[in-house]
Design brief:
single chain; about 220 residues; alpha/beta; two-stranded antiparallel sheet; 9 strands; globular
């Protein structure tokens, strides 16, 4: 699958389900204390000196963006789906949301103080992930942190129905060590790894969940910046 093909399929699927996705997942974090703990830890990290805001990449209807904002984070959302961005703007009118792709962000080098990618890479073919992590490294300021949430495993599943709608959407479960290697290869340094089992609010088929916290080194740590 070419990059253009999977981006088009993902955009189309989320344009289709945007309204129902927001309605069904609006309060999902309430039943996930470990997920909230990782977001809270991210919110308490010291910002990179002189860095810009945090970007919630693949923000969908803005629920994680809004949660981070409630924790005091200077954050805005970026999503591939225009309909998701429209829903996010209606649902959270005081926050900023933009259209964009993780593969080619319309941001200057080092523009972001941090990145949250909350399951926003799960539709990315594995061969494209190195480019995505390289782009995240590019837009992060030295010293900035990245929090990644992803599905743990080693499988590829094609969905033809989601959130009450017909779609065509690929989902990838990735081995944690491989994800860590890809992030390291992009120049990101791992700070913490959490792998949790499915909780009572999830269907067993959703499997284990991974949360990685990493940072872009500052120049004095040997990074190019």
């Amino acid at each position: 699958m070419t990059e253009a093909t999977y981006l088009h399929a993902t955009r189309t699927a989320y344009d289709t389900v945007a309204v129902d996705y927001e309605r069904l997942l609006r309060d999902e974090l309430d039943a996930k204390p470990l997920d909230r703990a990782m977001l809270a830890a991210f919110s308490e990290l010291p910002p990179a000196p002189g860095a810009g805001p945090v970007a919630d990449l693949g923000c969908g209807p803005g629920r994680i963006t809004a949660h981070l904002h409630s924790l005091g984070v200077n954050v805005f959302g970026i999503d591939l789906s225009p309909e998701m961005v429209a829903v996010a703007r209606r649902t959270h009118p005081g926050l900023r949301f933009e259209e964009g792709s993780m593969t080619e962000l319309a941001l200057e080098d080092g523009a972001l103080g941090g990145i949250v990618a909350w399951y926003s890479t799960v539709h990315t073919p594995p061969e494209v992930l190195p480019a995505v992590f390289a782009e995240c490294h590019r837009v992060l300021a030295p010293g900035g942190h990245m929090l990644l949430a992803f599905k743990v495993g080693d499988q590829h599943w094609h969905r033809e129905r989601a959130y009450g709608h017909e779609v065509s959407l690929d989902i990838y479960w990735m081995p944690p060590d491989h994800v860590a290697d890809l992030m390291s290869g992009a120049g990101l340094v791992m700070d913490a790894r959490l792998i949790r089992e499915p909780d009572e609010s999830e269907q067993p088929r959703q499997g284990r969940q991974g949360f990685f916290l990493a940072h872009k080194p500052r120049r004095r740590d040997g990074a190019s910046g």
